[in-house]
Known about the structure:
The chain is mostly helical. The protein has one domain (3-203). The protein contains 10 helices and no strands. It has helices at 3-22, 31-58, 68-91, 103-107, 116-137, 139-142, 144-151, 153-168, 175-199, 219-230. It is globular. Residues 202-210 have low confidence and may be disordered.
Amino acid sequence: MTRHDGLIFAWTAAAAVLLSVLLRGVNLGQTPWFVSRAAGLVTFIALSLSVIVGLLISTKTSHHLVPKPFVYELHTFLSTLALGLVTIHVTSLLFDSFTPFTPLQLVVPFASPYRTFWTGLGVIAAWLSLLLVASFAVRRHIGYANWRKLHYLSFAAYLIGLLHGIGAGTDTALAPVGFMYLVSVATVSGLLAYRILGGSGAGAATPAPRPAPRSAPGDSNRAARRRELTGR
């Protein structure tokens, strides 16, 4: 995440919090619930695409299709976008009149009165997403190797977010939503299996060195004869 992206996200989050304070107590009907549901679904799409692009990078599948800098920027953008959508998904619930949430219930895992376990998983996934996006800014300070190990948490965020969407989402039974989950899981699983089986090229066998050409039978005799004549 670049400094510019960080500033945009910070201002967006601050605006969302300020709007939450100003509109707290205003009856907006079912609008906040619809906004939260839509933002949650789009968040999972962005998170899925981020994981998929990350796997395309690690398996070098995308290198011959599009330039590397573009793919890396796309991966960072999708991760930041997912986190921004999570902010909308969460803050809109503060205005829900059917199931009122407090700010504490939305940031502390398993503190929500609504489907406590599944909603708690969503809070954990959100915190993991925040940690992953923040890691882009400190990658140079912690080193690439440590950053890459930390980045494995993206699989945890994806899986926990998937379980949250299935368990807490009210749209899971809809055919388009179920199809979206199925396509996402199939794509991520396929790319992950390809990576484990050596798609990144890390496990590829090193070609054996070519043997040195063998000398003809008479070469050694001619060399010895030349040394006798020249004294070398």
